[in-house]
Amino acid sequence: METDNDTRISEFLLLGLSEDPKLQPLLFRLFLFMFLITVFGNLLLILAVSSDSHLHTPMYFFLANLSFVDISFTSTTVPKMLWNIQTQSKVITYAGCITQMYFFLLFSSCDDFLLTVMAYDRFLAICHPLHYTVIMNPWLCGLLVLVSWIISVLNSLLQSLMVLRLSFCTEVEIPHFFCEPNQMIQLACSDTFLNDMVMYFLIVLLAGAPLAGILYSYSKIVSSILRMLSAQGKYKAFSTCASHLSVVSLFYCTGLGVYLSSAGTLSSHASAVASVMYTVVTPVLNPFIYSLRNRDIKRALKRIIGVPVM
User: Fold this and answer.
1) What are phi and psi for residue 3, nearest 5 degrees?
2) What is the domain extent for residue 145?
3) Buried/exposed 212-227: b ≥16 CB within 10 Å, e otherwise
4) Residue 233, C-beta contacts closer than 8 angstroms, at least 6 positions apart
5) In angstroms, rounded to a whole number, what is the distance separating the alpha carbons of residues 150 and 142?
6) Within a domain: residue 310?
7) Could you tell me if 85 and 27 are in contact, meaning their C-beta atoms sit under 8 angstroms apart?
8) Whose CA is closest to 94, among 158, 178, 7?
9) pLDDT tens for residues 27-54?
10) Is 85 a domain residue?
11) What are the pLDDT digits (tens) for 230-268?
12) Which residues of 279-288 are buried (b: 16+ CB within 10 A; e: fewer)?
């Protein structure tokens, strides 16, 4: 008997990271703290870049955009999780789940492309310094960010529409703290072959290709750094790339790990815990990673809070 192509449910249940009542207050305080740090830290970074004319360069323009996406990325999942813990409810409506999934895909894709653009920016700055200011002009910087948003919107729209065609019958428990696309597809009671093919194709295309671009850029950057004669020049070039490379490693290793291992033995709970790394932890760490070793950012932050700049 063919499954009726009609969504028979109006809501899902988000099981979260743990169903132990004793852990709920701890999880609430921990994620509330990380959410506030993410929002405050990234807003401070955006304010520093926008208020200091010395930071009106392509690198900091992309960094400010990344901070905005990180705030939006975290705001898509964490507030609903905190609300469910506080109200002791696991319910999210069907429309709310689809909306959350759409924006999760949108901001995660945009995060991915911005990290790639930032790697390209560092590649030009270190490997082609004489042509850098000509190539990375304001028009191209704006175009790169615009294209990143357009591709991200199309990707999230396509995947959301693919989920809308699925039927969900009786199994409504999502073993996650948000409506993660892969978990949604697994709950469907209709055929998901096309959804799986589209999802993995887009992962290879929209995550694999940027990752290959990042690896290529950094292979050229490392080669250029090793050819430098000045030890000070090597240190300066390495320090400008180390922060970005650490963020890329954390984002890709956890994000791709969750999706690529979904066909393997990784449990739903382990997948949810791993998802915390790229959905919550990475946006928290970004302001610290990009500012602690960056004199320009620290100088701009001191001006904002009124600390004398030496």
Assistant:
1) -70, 130
2) 11-305
3) ebbeebbeebeebbee
4) none
5) 12
6) no
7) yes
8) 7
9) 999 999 999 999 999 999 999 999 888 8
10) yes
11) 777 677 777 767 777 878 887 877 776 666 655 544 566
12) bbbbbbbbbe
